[in-house]
Design goal:
Layout: H1 6-22, H2 27-46, H3 50-69, H4 73-109, H5 128-143, H6 153-161, H7 174-182, H8 189-222, H9 229-260, H10 278-284, H11 287-298, H12 308-326, H13 330-348, H14 368-389, H15 393-403, H16 420-436, H17 453-473
């Protein structure tokens, strides 16, 4: 069930009505409703994988209780490693088995041996990387004595499978979400309206910007041999806008939807394309994943305490793992490696925490230095996205080589370029709104609140009409991160 689908437009009001009007007197009934709604939401993708979600949930719930009840450290370690091994085992089989089998066959073929590896060719269960990481953080936190295990299975199951975050995050922590699930929730009109504004902006980013950019990015990347370097630059830019508006749009809808039910999810994006260096970019992009790797991988490896060598080693490890988390392809590993390289100067010189404030805070226009830093960071990010988007390393290298050719200075041209002109206007509007709202949690949080009603509602109507129009003429693309 897509957030930008008619099915979800029917599903959400029904769950909202039942939640606040039929089950509002009982927290237990509300949580059961959320669990049933979440499992139904997931079953709409493929009901066969409901068992996998339930098994993963029960495994972590059960092992959490067993760790707490263990009388010896050896027993505690047994239950801990059982959960870790099974969770990563499922993730490895579904997501990475075929990749390793093919890579092994390719490697031995270079030595003169021919193999025919047995491939599984199975569908990747949607959201498996996200709900697996929910469970892993819960089990690790119990093992490290940061939290006590949850005794109520329904409450824990809602934490893992809450439908706004189930298939593409944000990656929640038990310390943040479980207390909200276990606490009484009362309807807050102000928060609900705030949630609706965030949903509206998320839908605009997804339907109007991301899906429109996807049309041109897919065309250019699929036919890169036919296009000039200047056209390929446009293709990379289209994908750059697509992936941000697609994923941050999903996150906005998820956070806004959760707020309708009185629940606050972790922020996942903080206007990353306005970053002044790569370190700042990664503090603002996919925040829940970045902080997950920081807390559960980077710090346990020693973090930054062991001098430059340890910081460099650990930084490369988390970026390579992050790349591999995104998919079983060498292109993702190279993407992670490039980002590690880009961040290295700030790691070595210890300037990675220089830009903790908001760019041009309290000002309309950035300084020349800020503008230059943002453009440089944006350019490095666009370059790395070429590897992320390409089907293979040879494709990515060809794409970059083509950009570096003389054709870079030709006039860009591709099929349907005329229809990209209206999109360019919407992109300018999008950047303008994002820039104005960069000091808030999301772009529309305060924009228009103090306008006179005719202007405010005209603005919202424009967004709604734009979403409707582009949904009618577009392809209604799935969210990119569903494949991860």
């Amino acid at each position: 069930m897509l957030f930008n689908s008619l099915h979800f437009a029917l599903f959400l009001p029904i769950v909202f009505f039942c939640y606040w009007f039929l089950t509002h007197k009982s927290l237990r009934a509300q949580n059961i409703l959320l669990l049933v709604a979440s499992y139904f939401f997931y079953a709409c993708w493929d009901w066969r994988f409901l068992f996998l979600l339930f098994f993963s949930t029960f495994l972590d719930y059960f092992t959490g209780l067993k760790m707490a009840a263990s009388v010896t450290q050896k027993q505690r370690q047994f239950w801990f490693w059982l959960s870790i091994t099974v969770n990563l085992g499922f993730l490895g089989v579904f997501k990475y088995y075929d990749f390793f089998a093919k890579s092994f066959a390719a490697a031995v073929s270079q030595l003169g041996f021919q193999t025919n590896p047995m491939l599984l060719d199975i569908i990747l269960p949607v959201g498996i990387s996200f709900y697996t990481f929910h469970g892993l953080s819960y089990v690790i936190d119990i093992y490290k004595d940061r939290i006590k295990p949850e005794k109520d299975f329904v409450d824990y199951a809602v934490f893992v499978s809450f439908f706004p975050l189930l298939v593409a995050g944000p990656i929640e922590r038990a310390t943040h979400l479980l207390p909200q699930i276990k606490s009484e929730r009362k309807f807050d009109y102000t928060k609900a309206v705030d949630g609706l504004r965030q949903i509206l902006w998320g839908l605009f980013k997804k339907v109007v910007i991301a899906d429109s950019c996807a049309k041109f990015a897919n065309e250019i990347f699929a036919n890169q041999t036919d296009y000039s370097g200047s056209t390929l630059v446009l293709g990379a830019l289209f994908f750059t806008f697509q992936i941000y508006c697609d994923f941050s749009g999903y996150s906005d809808i998820a956070l806004g939807t959760a707020r309708l039910f009185g629940i606050e999810l972790l922020r996942n994006f903080a206007f990353p394309y306005f970053s002044r260096d790569i370190a700042e970019f990664w503090r603002r992009w996919h925040i829940s994943l970045s902080t997950w790797f920081r807390d559960y991988l980077y710090i346990p490896l020693g973090g930054s305490k062991g001098g430059n060598w340890m910081r460099i080693r650990n930084t490369f490890i988390i970026f390579l793992v992050s790349g591999f988390w995104h998919g079983a392809n060498w292109t993702f590993l190279v993407w992670g490696f490039l980002n590690a390289l880009f961040i290295m100067p700030s790691i070595v010189l210890k300037t990675n925490r220089n830009n903790l404030d908001i760019v041009a805070q309290g000002r309309i226009f950035p300084s020349f230095r800020e503008l230059f830093s943002m453009l440089l960071t944006f350019g490095l990010t666009v370059f790395a996205w070429i590897f992320f988007r390409s089907e293979s390393l040879p494709d990515a290298l060809f794409y970059i080589g083509r950009i570096a050719s003389k054709s870079l200075f030709s006039v860009p041209h591709f099929s349907g370029i005329g229809t990209a002109i209206p999109l360019a206007l919407f992109l300018l509007f999008f950047f303008f709104i994002e820039w104005l709202g960069r000091e808030k949690q999301f772009a529309l949080q305060s924009i228009g609140l103090h306008w006179k009603k005719p202007f405010r509602w005209s603005f919202y109507t424009f967004l709604v009409i734009s979403i409707y129009y582009f949904s009618c003429i577009g392809t209604n693309e799935e969210f990119i991160y569903f494949q991860f």
